[in-house]
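Q: I have 122 residues here and want to know how they pack in 3D. Can you give me a structure?
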Amino acid sequence: VQLQASGGGLVQPGGSLRLSCAASGSIFSINAMGWHRQAPGKQRELVAAITSGGSTNYADSVKGRFTISRDNAEDTVYLQMNSLEPEDTAVYYCNADVSILISILLYEYDYWGQGTQVTVSS
């Protein structure tokens, strides 16, 4: 299973970006999907998560500015980021809680994408 993230870049404060992350491989089902970020010198933190049923959870710092969504048919998760601030500058990682069928058993694994840089600067 691989997660391929895209959509990062350089944007001015107040601008917007949309991140995408597509999962591929021998996937039986995908449970929760999410976005995390890590700024230089800081620990990785959860930005937003979404369940297979569409329930969402956001970090307080991004509530009202970021929106997470997913396309279950395409095994893809998105992060729409509006009103970006310099403090949002970080490498953004997607992750997915994936179930894989091996023989007659389901195994659950947590996969991570490669990270995409978001820089908010004037």
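Q: Anything worth noting?
A: The first strand starts at residue 2 and ends at 6. The two ends are 37 Å apart (CA to CA).
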